């Protein structure tokens, strides 16, 4: 089962994404800040991180830099209320970008794209 880490300071977003993605068969861990995200990643194998940009203390850009430097295997989807063009300017080279106004079905498609490299298959060739 693929594990998704949700990093978002908004409890409603964390709850909504967790329920939706659990129902779609994913193992989900949701945390409210970068410190908790880092602790989770140190202890558990994470396949995809949904990363909010605006968070207190350590923002998404700083966490992204840590993830890219030390956990290169984790795929990152920036998830923000900012339009995607602004997200790309703030955090370059993420695997994908998601505007929270796009809806949950669009989020699911982006997750599948990054997990299965747009082909419906993971690294082993299995779905």
Q: Brief overview, please?
A:
The protein is α/β, with parallel strands linked by helices and 127 residues long. 42% of the residues lie in helices and 19% in strands. It has one domain (3-115): 3-Layer(aba) Sandwich (Rossmann fold), CATH 3.40.50.2300.
Write down the overall mean pLDDT: 90
Give a count of the beta strands, DSSP E runs of length 2 or more.
5
Specify the helix fraction band.
40-55%
Could you give a short account of the major beta sheet? Answer: 5 strands, parallel
The succession of helices and strands, N to C, reads EHEHEHEHEH
**How does CATH name the architecture?**
3-Layer(aba) Sandwich
**What is the CATH topology descriptor?**
Rossmann fold
Walk across the major sheet and give the strand order.
2-1-3-4-5
Decide which structural class fits the backbone. Answer: alpha/beta
* Cα-to-Cα separation, first versus last residue: 11 Å
| Spatial extent as radius of gyration | 13 Å
For the record, the CATH class is Alpha Beta
CATH homologous superfamily assignment: Response regulator
Helical run tally: 5
Segments where pLDDT lies below 50 for 5+ residues? Answer: 119-127
Kindly give the count of domains.
1
Structure description:
This protein has a single domain (3-115), classed as Rossmann fold. Strand 4, helix 4 and strand 5 (96-99) form a beta-alpha-beta unit. Residues 119-127 have low confidence and may be disordered. A 5-stranded parallel sheet has the order 2-1-3-4-5, sandwiched between helices. With 127 residues, the chain is α/β, with parallel strands linked by helices. The protein has helices spanning 11-23, 34-43, 60-70, 84-90, 104-115; strands spanning 3-7, 27-31, 48-51, 75-80, 96-99. 42% of the residues lie in helices and 19% in strands.
